[in-house]
Structure formats: structure tokens, C-alpha cells
Amino acid sequence: MYTETNRSLKEFNTFGVDAKANQLVTITSVDELKQALITPEIKNNPWLVLGGGSNILFTRDFDGAVILNRIKGVEKIREDENYVWIKAGSGEVWHELVMWCVERNYGGIENLSLIPGCVGAGPIQNIGAYGVEIKDVLEAVEVLMIDDGTLLTLSNAECLFGYRDSIFKNQLRGKCIIVSVVLKLSKKTEVNTTYGAIKQELEEAGIHNPGIRDVGEAVIRIRKSKLPDPSRLGNAGSFFKNPEVEKEFFDELKNEFEKIPGFEQASGKIKIPAGWLIEQCGLKGVRVGNTGTHKDQALVIVNYGNASGKEILDFADSVIEKVKNKFSINLEKEVNII
User: HSE of 55 in the Cβ direction (CA atoms, 13 Å)?
Assistant: First the structure.
């Protein structure tokens, strides 16, 4: 465990916002995490856990301790003829885990290539991309309960996964810390290319019988072509969730906005791309001061170098207001606001 005081968090959040924390405590094991939680400086003051910092916006300095999760380790814990079970520490970089699995031809998360952040954020957000969500392959989540320091294992069903949602954002919010996950991956070439962009990318590359690596590489090319690199242009990926509306309301919108796209969900609701809504409000590529929407993807809000978290949040709220006024839809922030 390593502690620094009055530490800038700029290099630890992908927005690149220069907020400070009273303390930055780096932990590398579950035991260190347990120890950190009982120290008076943390126990008696506000604190939060930070992994890759890819889904957070600091709008102020943090008057407390930030625990930097660096719990590492990736291992195969069992396998059978068809599947392999992989356990990964919550502080592992998500994309590095994906590449580790792709290299070994373990299938199931290749569509989630290049998603920024650490493994521990995956179940919280139920991260997803290109037709796949982590819930599709997640076997279990191991958590440290904050109140008594015990370790608890939750099954996939117990995580109560929804669209960018889970028990960790609701009933267990603030009550536990994810320390590891177990993924059940396929040992056979069963790829998901139903998402249009992947199919088109593979066809253009002349690949007609894609393997796991082919799909992973296609996803990486797509993401790099559409989304800004946080190391060059501060951002947190998609800032808003894609809203889901009742079919009757969608039909009303369709009458007024003929080209509005919608995708029916298992719940019967219709998911509408938030990026399309924002773009129709004339907000794609708009810059206000040091922040704005990305020129290629309206769903991504970026920091052009010197934006404060408050400036970014104010811009996001203005986007929400304009979409609400035009479509009567309330966009929900996907990014955590501190």
C-alpha cells in the first residue's frame, strides 16, 4: 500500500481533469484493500475507489481519499471440453484481459475489445458493445463487503444485470468493492458478427469465416476510426445511455421524425441511439470553450485540454436540455459525476 497526499488525479481519469485528492492510496491486493478501509484517515473521511478512471467526471477536488485499485492477476481456474473459466483481478486493464483471451482463442469478449477502464468496472456498468455485454459471459463476481471485511461471491443472476446497470449501482452501491471476476469463455470458434459494423468491416477485409482474433481486430479498427483516444483527447467514451422508450411513444416519434432509428428490446421497449438524437439537435462536433461533442461521434463529450469538470458537466446538461426540448426524451448520464 502506497499513500500520497494532495495528489492530482489528472493522470488517473480519462477526461484528464486536474482535480486533487487529499490522499491517493494505491493498493495491489485484497489484504491491502482491507487494511486501507480500516485506517482512520480513510474510515473517518469520504473515500472512493478508482480503477481506470474511464467512467468518472471530477467536478471538484475530492476532500478525502481515493483508493487506486491495482489488484492484478489473470488465471485459468478450470476448463472442460467446450469452455474455460478465467479469473481476473479487478485492477487488471480490461483491454489487456481481452487480448490475453484472444491470444489463447478463448471466445466471448472479443467484441468488447478496446473498451477503456479496468475489469472491476465491467460488472458495475454491465459493459457492452457490438452486440455483446459482459453479462453474457460472466460467471461470478467476488466482492469485499465494506461493513465487515468479508468476501462474498455473487452469481450472474445475483448481479441483477440490466442495460448499463447492475446490483452494484443500486442495492449494493457503496456497500461492497469488486475484487475479481470469473468469466466463462468458449474454446470453440463461436463469434458474434450480427452487429452491422462488424459484418461490414470483415467483408471489406475479405474475411468470410472469421475467427475470434478477426472479430477482435475488426472491433479495434472500428473503435479507433470512430472514437477519440483518451490519451490524446480527454473523454470517457459514451457520456449518455441510449434511452429506451415504450413502443407507443416511439410510434408517436416516428410520425414526427420519420428517420428516427429504433431497436426493439426483449422487454418490448424500443432503444433509440442517443448519438442520433444529439446529432439531430445540431450538436455533433459542437465546441463550447474547452469542451464539446466529438466531431465523429455526438455521444462522446471531449476535453480539448483545459476544461474543468464543471465546464464539461454544464455542457452535458445543455445537451440533455436540448434533446428533451426536441424529442421529449430525458438522456441519462452514463458517466459517474463526483
Answer: 23
Q: Which of 54, 164, 201, 308 is catalytic?
A: 164
Catalytic residue, chosen from 54, 90, 166, 238, is 238
Candidate CATH numbers 3.30.43.10, 3.90.550.10, 3.20.20.70, 3.50.50.60; the one for domain 2-69:
3.30.43.10
**Rg, C-alpha atoms of the chain:** 20
Domain-wise residue ranges, the chain: 2-69, 74-226, 234-337
Q: Checking DSSP bridges between strand 336-337 and strand 56-57, what pairing results, if any? A: parallel
Does 96 participate in catalysis according to the annotation?
no
What's the CATH code, domain 74-226?
3.30.465.10
The DSSP result for 187-251, as a single string, is SS------SHHHHHHHHHTT-SS--HHHHHHHHHHHHHHHS--TTTSEEEEE-BPPPEE-HHHHH
3-class secondary structure, 81:
coil
Catalytic residue chosen out of the listed positions 41, 79, 311, 334: 334
Residue 164 is a catalytic residue: yes
pLDDT digits (tens, 9 = 90+) for 153-172: 999 999 999 988 899 999 99
Query: Does the pTM of the predicted model rise above 0.90?
Result: no
CA distances from 318 to 244, 308, 330 (A): 20, 16, 12
| Annotation says 8 is catalytic | no
Which pLDDT tens digit goes with each residue over 278-314? Answer: 999 999 999 999 999 999 899 999 999 889 999 999 9
Strand order in the sheet with 62-69: 2-8, 20-27, 62-69, 47-50
